[in-house]
Every structure is written in C-alpha cells, then in structure tokens.
Write a structure and sequence with these properties.
- The structure is a single chain.
- It is globular and about 50 Å long.
- The chain contains ten helices and eight strands.
- Helices cover 46% and strands 23% of the residues.
- By secondary structure, the chain is of the alpha/beta class.
- It has one domain: Vaccinia Virus protein VP39 (Rossmann fold).
- It starts with 6 loop residues before the first helix and ends with a strand.
- Helix 3 links the parallel strand 1 and strand 2.
- Strands 1, 2, 3, 4, 5, 6, 7 and 8 form an eight-stranded mixed sheet that branches.
- It binds S-adenosylmethionine (SAM).
C-alpha cells in the first residue's frame, strides 16, 4: 500500500492537471454538450484552465473556470493568456459544492475528472443543476472502472484522494440529481494512446516544464518524486481496471 499522497497539490505545484482520454475526450464531451457560439459555459474544477481556453477558442463562448485551489487558478490565468483566450475566459476560486453563481446562469456546465475527488458528489451535482439554465447541458468526464476492482485497487486510488465509480453508478448518481436525457459512453484506457492524448492536451512545453519543476524540487522535497513514481506505478499496475466515461444530459 503506498503512502497517502497529496496528488492534486502536487499537480498544482507542477502546473499540470489532466483527465483520462486527454484532448480527444474533452472534444467529444464538448460536442455531446451541444456547446455553440455565444453560450455562457462553466467549467467546474478547471485545474490549470486548459478546458475553458479550449472551449472559448473553439466555440467563441464566454467561459468561467472555477477551482478550489488558488494555485490552480493562478496557472489558469497564465495559461489563458498564453493561449490568447483571456478576453473570453474568467477564473474564480470556488468550491463545486457551493458555487458562487445565481440560479440558471449558464448554458452548459462542464466538469472533467473532479467529482471523483469530491466527498459530497450529490451536493456538487445539486449545484450544477442549480446554476445551469432550464434546457442547459451538464457534461461530465469521470474515471470509471473498466473491470470490477479488487479492494486493493480501490484503496490504492483512495490514497490519491480519488473515489472512482463504475459507469452505472455514475449514471444513477446523475439520474438521482435530476439530470435528464443522459447520453453516456465508456472508454478503456491504453497506455500509448493515453500518453499521446495527454501530450496533446498539455502540450510538450508544459510537460517539459513540469518535469523540470519536478526534478528541481526533488533536491529540496523528495516527496515530489515519490508522488510522481506512485502515480506512474498506479497507472501502470492498475490500468486494466481504469477507464473513463463521458456523460451529457440536460436540466428539463
Ligand atoms: C484531476 S484535476 C482535473 C482538472 C481539469 N478539469 C482537467 O481536466 O485538467 C481535479 C481538479 O479538481 C479540483 N477540485 C477538487 N475538489 C474541488 C472542489 N470541491 N471544487 C472545485 N474544484 C475542485 C482540483 O483542485 C483540481 O484542479
């Protein structure tokens, strides 16, 4: 059993966040949400903010990205500038379980690889439903078991602060939250395509920068290396159990 690691804090230090399926999964999710020009979109748990910039540039939408981590939001602002998307995106520190927006504000709520890390998933979903307009879309990409996990596998992922569910468990959670007309599709993860998609999502420059930060931090804080190694080990050893699923539904 690995030591418990602060996975998300380490990602914030290194300026990288990711979700399974990389860029291809995001693009598919956006198309399932029927995002169109002029929409007002919320990306919950936006991490370093690549999602909001992509949506803004691809669809010409205004996008708000929120994340619970102030350091993620700092990265997100820098990245939006680098991506030339600053005029269309805005970022705020906020908790998915208590969003600082009026009821019915957004045309779509997007959320990728965040609910697995949230203790009260029902509260977050209630908030997504509250802030989206009637007829608006809720679109979620989450890690999903692709094979019945053993107790060892479940507790391994818990050390990363992550509670993964099966596709049908996610689905019943979303239906329970009142999301209707849910389209969903599950995917298995294979090492090489996954790596390529993650590079496409983050870009070589950000990957190299993260590796440079990781190596330089190692001198002062060996924990960083442990975290990276644990992550790589978990992905390799348990990859056969993990996949992801995309869900897109509506508020009626
Ligand atoms: C695995 S990262 C995914 C980030 C981004 N969506 C992506 O796909 O690259 C999970 C993100 O969720 C954020 N997060 C965790 N709990 C949260 C909460 N309660 N409210 C908002 N964001 C949260 C973390 O800070 C982190 O940036």
């Amino acid at each position: 059993m690995p030591k418990s690691v602060d996975y998300l804090a380490t990602q914030a230090d290194l300026g990288i966040t990711k979700h399974m399926g990389g860029l291809a999964a995001s693009l598919k999710l956006y198309s399932m949400c029927s995002i169109k020009k002029g929409d007002y979109v919320l990306d919950v748990g936006c991490g370093i903010g690549l999602g909001p910039s992509q949506i803004a540039k691809k669809y010409g939408c205004r996008v708000v990205g929120v994340d619970i981590s102030p350091r993620m939001i700092e990265w997100a602002k820098k990245n939006a500038e680098m991506e030339g998307a600053s005029s269309l995106v805005e970022f705020r520190v906020a908790d998915a379980q208590k969003l600082p927006f009026e009821d019915g504000t957004f045309d779509a709520v997007v959320c990728e690889s965040v609910l697995s890390f949230i203790p009260d998933k029902e509260a977050a979903l209630r908030e997504f439903m509250r802030v989206v307009k009637k007829g608006g879309h809720i679109c979620i990409n989450e890690a999903a078991w692709s094979k019945e996990p053993t107790p060892e596998v479940i507790s391994y992922f818990k050390t990363f602060g992550s509670t993964i569910l099966a596709e049908k468990e996610w689905l019943s959670l979303f239906e329970g939250a009142g999301i209707s007309d849910i389209a969903h599709e599950a995917f298995k993860v294979r090492v090489i395509p996954e790596l390529i998609e993650r590079i496409k999502l983050l870009g070589i420059r950000r990957m190299l920068n993260a590796w440079f930060l990781l190596l330089s931090q190692y001198i002062w804080k060996p924990r960083y290396f442990e975290v990276a190694l644990e992550g790589a080990k978990a992905s390799g050893k348990f990859m056969e159990y993990t996949g992801y699923a995309l869900f897109a539904g509506k508020k009626k």
